[in-house]
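Risk mitigation, structural track. In case the binding assays with S-adenosyl-L-homocysteine fail to produce interpretable data, a predicted complex structure has been prepared as a fallback.
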Amino acid sequence: MLRIDFVTIFPRMFDAFLAEGVIARGVKQGLLDVHVHDLRDYTSDKHRSTDDEAYGGGPGMVMLAEPVLRVVEKLNVDIQKPHVVMTSPQGRTFTQAIAKELAKKQHLIILCGRYEGFDERIRESVNPDEISIGDFVVSGGEIPAMLIADAVGRMIEGVVGNSGSVEEDSFFNGLLDYPHYTRPEEIRGMRVPDVLLSGHHEKIRLWRREQALRRTLRLRPDLLKNAELDDEARAILRKIENESG
Ligand code: SAH
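Fallback model:
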Protein backbone atom coordinates (compact mmCIF):
# COMPACT_ATOMS: atom_id res chain seq x y z
CA MET A 1 0.00 0.00 0.00
CA LEU A 2 1.23 3.47 -0.89
CA ARG A 3 0.77 6.22 1.66
CA ILE A 4 0.57 9.83 0.43
CA ASP A 5 0.54 12.84 2.76
CA PHE A 6 -0.22 16.26 1.32
CA VAL A 7 1.00 19.31 3.25
CA THR A 8 -0.88 22.51 2.41
CA ILE A 9 -2.37 25.72 3.75
CA PHE A 10 -5.51 24.99 1.69
CA PRO A 11 -6.61 21.49 2.77
CA ARG A 12 -10.13 21.96 1.41
CA MET A 13 -8.76 22.10 -2.12
CA PHE A 14 -8.27 18.34 -1.81
CA ASP A 15 -11.86 17.49 -0.84
CA ALA A 16 -13.24 16.92 -4.34
CA PHE A 17 -10.06 15.22 -5.49
CA LEU A 18 -10.27 12.70 -2.66
CA ALA A 19 -14.04 12.22 -2.93
CA GLU A 20 -14.19 11.13 -6.54
CA GLY A 21 -12.30 9.31 -9.24
CA VAL A 22 -9.34 7.02 -9.33
CA ILE A 23 -7.67 8.15 -6.09
CA ALA A 24 -10.93 7.80 -4.14
CA ARG A 25 -11.33 4.28 -5.49
CA GLY A 26 -7.77 3.40 -4.57
CA VAL A 27 -8.43 4.56 -1.02
CA LYS A 28 -11.70 2.59 -0.80
CA GLN A 29 -9.95 -0.52 -2.04
CA GLY A 30 -7.24 -0.14 0.56
CA LEU A 31 -4.52 0.30 -2.07
CA LEU A 32 -3.82 3.94 -1.20
CA ASP A 33 -3.68 5.62 2.19
CA VAL A 34 -4.07 9.36 1.68
CA HIS A 35 -3.94 12.16 4.27
CA VAL A 36 -4.11 15.94 4.04
CA HIS A 37 -2.32 18.08 6.64
CA ASP A 38 -3.14 21.71 7.32
CA LEU A 39 0.19 23.46 7.75
CA ARG A 40 -1.48 25.87 10.19
CA ASP A 41 -1.76 23.01 12.70
CA TYR A 42 2.03 23.01 12.89
CA THR A 43 2.52 26.73 13.60
CA SER A 44 3.45 28.18 16.98
CA ASP A 45 2.20 31.79 17.04
CA LYS A 46 -1.30 32.96 17.83
CA HIS A 47 -1.96 34.03 14.24
CA ARG A 48 -0.98 30.58 13.03
CA SER A 49 1.31 32.14 10.42
CA THR A 50 2.74 29.97 7.68
CA ASP A 51 4.60 32.73 5.81
CA ASP A 52 6.54 35.92 6.39
CA GLU A 53 8.32 38.70 4.50
CA ALA A 54 11.50 37.95 2.58
CA TYR A 55 14.88 38.82 4.05
CA GLY A 56 16.51 41.32 1.73
CA GLY A 57 13.15 42.82 0.88
CA GLY A 58 11.18 42.64 -2.29
CA PRO A 59 7.60 41.71 -3.02
CA GLY A 60 5.95 38.49 -1.94
CA MET A 61 5.87 36.30 1.12
CA VAL A 62 7.95 33.21 1.85
CA MET A 63 6.69 29.97 3.43
CA LEU A 64 8.13 29.49 6.93
CA ALA A 65 10.52 26.59 7.36
CA GLU A 66 9.60 25.54 10.91
CA PRO A 67 5.98 24.35 10.32
CA VAL A 68 7.08 22.35 7.26
CA LEU A 69 10.00 20.76 9.15
CA ARG A 70 7.65 19.87 12.03
CA VAL A 71 5.11 18.11 9.86
CA VAL A 72 7.83 16.21 7.99
CA GLU A 73 9.32 15.10 11.34
CA LYS A 74 5.92 14.02 12.64
CA LEU A 75 5.29 11.90 9.55
CA ASN A 76 8.71 10.26 9.71
CA VAL A 77 7.39 7.33 11.71
CA ASP A 78 7.87 4.35 9.39
CA ILE A 79 10.89 2.11 9.37
CA GLN A 80 11.59 3.47 5.91
CA LYS A 81 12.05 7.22 5.66
CA PRO A 82 9.25 8.90 3.69
CA HIS A 83 10.15 10.25 0.26
CA VAL A 84 9.57 14.01 0.41
CA VAL A 85 8.44 15.67 -2.81
CA MET A 86 8.60 19.45 -3.03
CA THR A 87 6.39 20.91 -5.75
CA SER A 88 8.42 23.61 -7.47
CA PRO A 89 8.91 25.07 -10.94
CA GLN A 90 12.65 24.59 -10.32
CA GLY A 91 12.41 20.80 -9.96
CA ARG A 92 12.96 18.00 -12.45
CA THR A 93 10.12 17.95 -14.95
CA PHE A 94 7.48 15.35 -14.10
CA THR A 95 7.13 12.44 -16.54
CA GLN A 96 5.53 9.01 -16.66
CA ALA A 97 8.93 7.54 -15.77
CA ILE A 98 8.99 9.61 -12.56
CA ALA A 99 5.39 8.54 -11.82
CA LYS A 100 6.47 4.90 -12.07
CA GLU A 101 9.48 5.57 -9.87
CA LEU A 102 7.36 7.26 -7.17
CA ALA A 103 4.78 4.46 -7.32
CA LYS A 104 7.46 2.08 -6.02
CA LYS A 105 7.89 4.10 -2.80
CA GLN A 106 6.02 3.21 0.37
CA HIS A 107 5.39 6.70 1.61
CA LEU A 108 5.30 10.06 -0.16
CA ILE A 109 5.00 13.45 1.50
CA ILE A 110 4.09 16.14 -1.03
CA LEU A 111 4.75 19.74 -0.01
CA CYS A 112 2.52 22.40 -1.56
CA GLY A 113 4.02 25.88 -1.70
CA ARG A 114 2.32 29.26 -2.05
CA TYR A 115 3.49 32.86 -2.56
CA GLU A 116 7.20 33.01 -3.50
CA GLY A 117 7.72 29.42 -2.42
CA PHE A 118 9.58 27.86 0.51
CA ASP A 119 12.30 29.18 2.82
CA GLU A 120 15.47 27.79 1.25
CA ARG A 121 16.46 26.01 4.48
CA ILE A 122 13.68 23.45 3.95
CA ARG A 123 15.69 22.24 0.96
CA GLU A 124 18.87 22.11 3.03
CA SER A 125 17.26 20.23 5.88
CA VAL A 126 14.97 17.77 4.07
CA ASN A 127 16.76 17.41 0.73
CA PRO A 128 13.43 16.91 -1.04
CA ASP A 129 12.82 15.48 -4.49
CA GLU A 130 11.91 18.74 -6.21
CA ILE A 131 9.37 18.16 -8.98
CA SER A 132 7.96 20.59 -11.53
CA ILE A 133 4.87 19.91 -13.61
CA GLY A 134 6.26 21.99 -16.49
CA ASP A 135 8.03 25.17 -17.43
CA PHE A 136 5.41 27.60 -16.18
CA VAL A 137 4.42 28.96 -12.80
CA VAL A 138 1.09 28.34 -11.09
CA SER A 139 0.09 30.08 -7.89
CA GLY A 140 0.22 27.09 -5.57
CA GLY A 141 1.49 23.55 -5.19
CA GLU A 142 -1.93 22.00 -4.58
CA ILE A 143 -2.87 21.39 -8.22
CA PRO A 144 0.65 20.14 -9.06
CA ALA A 145 0.47 17.82 -6.01
CA MET A 146 -2.90 16.39 -7.06
CA LEU A 147 -1.64 15.97 -10.60
CA ILE A 148 1.45 14.09 -9.40
CA ALA A 149 -0.60 11.93 -7.01
CA ASP A 150 -3.09 11.05 -9.75
CA ALA A 151 -0.37 9.93 -12.16
CA VAL A 152 1.40 7.98 -9.39
CA GLY A 153 -1.80 6.47 -7.95
CA ARG A 154 -2.90 5.00 -11.26
CA MET A 155 0.45 3.19 -11.53
CA ILE A 156 -0.42 1.14 -8.43
CA GLU A 157 -1.64 -2.31 -9.42
CA GLY A 158 -5.43 -2.51 -9.04
CA VAL A 159 -6.18 1.20 -8.63
CA VAL A 160 -7.34 1.59 -12.23
CA GLY A 161 -9.95 -1.11 -12.89
CA ASN A 162 -8.25 -2.64 -15.91
CA SER A 163 -4.47 -2.55 -15.58
CA GLY A 164 -4.18 -3.19 -19.33
CA SER A 165 -5.68 0.21 -19.95
CA VAL A 166 -2.85 1.86 -17.99
CA GLU A 167 -0.24 -0.07 -19.94
CA GLU A 168 -1.71 1.11 -23.21
CA ASP A 169 -1.91 4.77 -22.20
CA SER A 170 0.28 7.35 -23.86
CA PHE A 171 3.86 7.36 -22.53
CA PHE A 172 3.59 4.05 -20.65
CA ASN A 173 5.67 2.37 -23.32
CA GLY A 174 7.32 5.55 -24.47
CA LEU A 175 4.77 6.04 -27.27
CA LEU A 176 1.52 7.94 -27.70
CA ASP A 177 -1.73 5.98 -27.41
CA TYR A 178 -3.56 4.63 -30.49
CA PRO A 179 -6.92 6.20 -31.52
CA HIS A 180 -10.10 5.06 -29.73
CA TYR A 181 -13.65 4.71 -31.07
CA THR A 182 -16.97 3.84 -29.47
CA ARG A 183 -20.61 3.51 -30.67
CA PRO A 184 -22.08 4.29 -33.15
CA GLU A 185 -20.25 2.76 -36.12
CA GLU A 186 -20.97 5.83 -38.20
CA ILE A 187 -21.46 9.41 -37.11
CA ARG A 188 -21.99 12.29 -39.57
CA GLY A 189 -20.48 10.25 -42.36
CA MET A 190 -17.38 9.31 -40.35
CA ARG A 191 -16.93 5.58 -40.00
CA VAL A 192 -15.05 3.50 -37.49
CA PRO A 193 -12.07 1.85 -39.26
CA ASP A 194 -13.21 -1.54 -40.61
CA VAL A 195 -10.44 -3.46 -38.91
CA LEU A 196 -11.86 -2.59 -35.47
CA LEU A 197 -15.18 -4.21 -36.44
CA SER A 198 -13.51 -7.29 -37.91
CA GLY A 199 -13.20 -9.21 -34.66
CA HIS A 200 -9.72 -10.25 -35.81
CA HIS A 201 -7.67 -9.73 -32.67
CA GLU A 202 -4.22 -10.01 -34.21
CA LYS A 203 -5.07 -7.58 -37.03
CA ILE A 204 -6.52 -5.16 -34.50
CA ARG A 205 -3.42 -5.39 -32.32
CA LEU A 206 -1.15 -4.68 -35.31
CA TRP A 207 -3.32 -1.82 -36.53
CA ARG A 208 -3.24 -0.19 -33.11
CA ARG A 209 0.49 -0.62 -32.84
CA GLU A 210 0.97 1.00 -36.23
CA GLN A 211 -1.37 3.86 -35.38
CA ALA A 212 0.49 4.51 -32.11
CA LEU A 213 3.78 4.61 -33.99
CA ARG A 214 2.39 6.86 -36.74
CA ARG A 215 1.00 9.25 -34.20
CA THR A 216 4.18 9.38 -32.18
CA LEU A 217 6.23 9.94 -35.32
CA ARG A 218 3.94 12.77 -36.40
CA LEU A 219 3.26 14.52 -33.09
CA ARG A 220 6.18 13.60 -30.81
CA PRO A 221 9.13 12.30 -32.84
CA ASP A 222 11.35 13.14 -29.85
CA LEU A 223 9.72 10.28 -27.89
CA LEU A 224 10.79 7.69 -30.45
CA LYS A 225 14.43 8.34 -29.71
CA ASN A 226 14.06 7.05 -26.16
CA ALA A 227 11.35 4.43 -26.72
CA GLU A 228 12.32 0.78 -26.42
CA LEU A 229 11.24 -0.62 -29.76
CA ASP A 230 11.05 -4.32 -30.57
CA ASP A 231 11.58 -5.85 -34.04
CA GLU A 232 7.92 -5.54 -34.92
CA ALA A 233 7.83 -1.82 -34.09
CA ARG A 234 11.02 -1.19 -36.03
CA ALA A 235 9.59 -3.01 -39.06
CA ILE A 236 6.42 -0.92 -38.89
CA LEU A 237 8.46 2.27 -38.66
CA ARG A 238 10.52 1.29 -41.70
CA LYS A 239 7.30 0.70 -43.61
CA ILE A 240 5.96 4.13 -42.61
CA GLU A 241 9.21 5.85 -43.52
CA ASN A 242 9.26 4.18 -46.96
CA GLU A 243 5.79 5.52 -47.71
CA SER A 244 6.86 9.12 -47.35
CA GLY A 245 10.25 8.66 -49.03
N1 SAH B 1 9.04 31.97 -6.83
C1 SAH B 1 8.94 30.57 -7.12
C2 SAH B 1 7.54 30.17 -7.60
C3 SAH B 1 6.54 30.15 -6.51
S1 SAH B 1 4.96 29.67 -7.10
C4 SAH B 1 9.93 30.23 -8.22
O1 SAH B 1 10.04 30.99 -9.17
O2 SAH B 1 10.55 29.16 -8.16
C5 SAH B 1 4.22 29.08 -5.61
C6 SAH B 1 4.17 27.59 -5.45
O3 SAH B 1 3.43 27.01 -6.50
C7 SAH B 1 5.51 26.88 -5.48
O4 SAH B 1 6.12 26.91 -4.20
C8 SAH B 1 5.11 25.48 -5.87
O5 SAH B 1 4.63 24.75 -4.75
C9 SAH B 1 3.93 25.73 -6.79
N2 SAH B 1 4.31 25.69 -8.23
C10 SAH B 1 4.30 26.74 -9.08
N3 SAH B 1 4.66 26.36 -10.32
C11 SAH B 1 4.90 25.04 -10.26
C12 SAH B 1 5.33 24.07 -11.20
N4 SAH B 1 5.59 24.38 -12.47
N5 SAH B 1 5.48 22.80 -10.78
C13 SAH B 1 5.24 22.46 -9.50
N6 SAH B 1 4.83 23.33 -8.56
C14 SAH B 1 4.67 24.60 -8.92
